[in-house]
Amino acid sequence: MNSILLKNKTVLVTGNTGFKGSWLSTWLTMLGADVIGLSDQVPTRPAHHDMVKNFLKEDMRIDVRDADAVYNAINSIKPDFIFHLAAQPIVLESYRVPLETFITNTMGTAHILDALRRINHTCTAVMITSDKCYDNVEWTWGYRETDHLGGKDPYSGSKGSAELVIKSYTESFFKKTESKVRIGIGRAGNVIGGGDWAPNRIVPDCINAWSLKDKAKLRNPNSTRPWQHVLEPLSGYVTLATTLHQNSSLNGEAFNFGPPAYQNHSVGELVGELTQHWPGSDWDEMPAPTASPHEAGLLKLNCDKALHTLGWRATLNFSETARWTGNWYRTYYQEGAVAAGKLTSQQIEEFMQLAHSRHSFKIG
């Protein structure tokens, strides 16, 4: 990854107040970019965004469901790069507000793309969807970028729909010779790390319980996911953006970013690993409701394309991922928000060093 391409560049991050967006905004700033955030609100309290927001050049409150506001912002800012992460990100929440989920995740994506269609400046955009965009039939091998898209729940369906919108806009408008816009797609999921307090996610649920000296309650301890630290897919998104900026042949291409296939662990295994870094923590299995909403039990990604095309690979193993996550939360609850914000920058620096030393992958 040629991070020099980001230095002094204007970068727009949608969904910057969210968990992944706040980590990405911090990292991009550390790489020398002028980062502008676009989000409708700060989604949780506490919020990782509040600990690192001073990194931002500007922090705009705009809803991606407002097409005119999105266009006006992008046309005014004229970003060199866009990372689109704004979304309704919770599977269980999508059952409660399915229409809002589709409008935010699918039409919100369309609004970004339509704004890009109308602008007249050069821009490289990475559209972030999800590993749940695939039609998950729970087979034991990893999904490839060419596999069928779909989704049984509204969240997954909204992400599969967003992928169709991205393909349509790219083929119709951004593959033309005169287009100044290049589009890449990043697919990842089940990221963990410090600073996530979203409801109905396993790590925040555990941390909230343990901070009150309660036992965590697990709904589906045997469900497996490709757990990875938040910095793993973010390194993939940044690598995709800088490579795409230099190589037009990647325009419209999608990439999976996830851990090695063997690093698929159950919810119970993840929580067991986290308890090693939180003294006195424990958990119980919670009986599943009689009519509980569908959630995938098995999900893997094949990331060979990212390895062979972008030179990207995961850096942290499962134990390190849990340790970095546990240490961040312990720092927050024992030393406060300022110390946790500093640890964010320290972990980004350490991650870049490890990526370079372990497989000569230079991120910064």
Summarize the model shown.
The protein has helices at 19-30, 48-52, 67-77, 91-96, 98-118, 154-174, 202-211, 231-246, 267-275, 304-310, 318-335, 337-359; strands spanning 10-14, 34-39, 58-61, 81-84, 123-128, 181-187, 191-192, 216-218, 224-225, 228-229, 254-256, 265-266, 283-285. It is built from 12 helices and 13 strands.
Number of strands: 13
What fraction, in percent, of the residue positions are helical? 40-55%
| Helix count, DSSP H or I runs of 4 or more residues | 12
CATH architecture: 3-Layer(aba) Sandwich
List the secondary-structure elements in sequence, H or E: EHEHEHEHHEHEEHEEEHEEHEHHH
For the sheet with most strands, the description reads: 7 strands, parallel
The N- to C-terminal Cα distance equals 8 Å
Average pLDDT figure: 93
Number of domains: 1
Task: Report strand order across the widest sheet.
Answer: 3-2-1-4-5-6-11
Helices and strands in order, then pairings?
Layout: E1 10-14, H1 19-30, E2 34-39, H2 48-52, E3 58-61, H3 67-77, E4 81-84, H4 91-96, H5 98-118, E5 123-128, H6 154-174, E6 181-187, E7 191-192, H7 202-211, E8 216-218, E9 224-225, E10 228-229, H8 231-246, E11 254-256, E12 265-266, H9 267-275, E13 283-285, H10 304-310, H11 318-335, H12 337-359
Helix pairs in contact: 3-5, 5-6, 9-11, 11-12
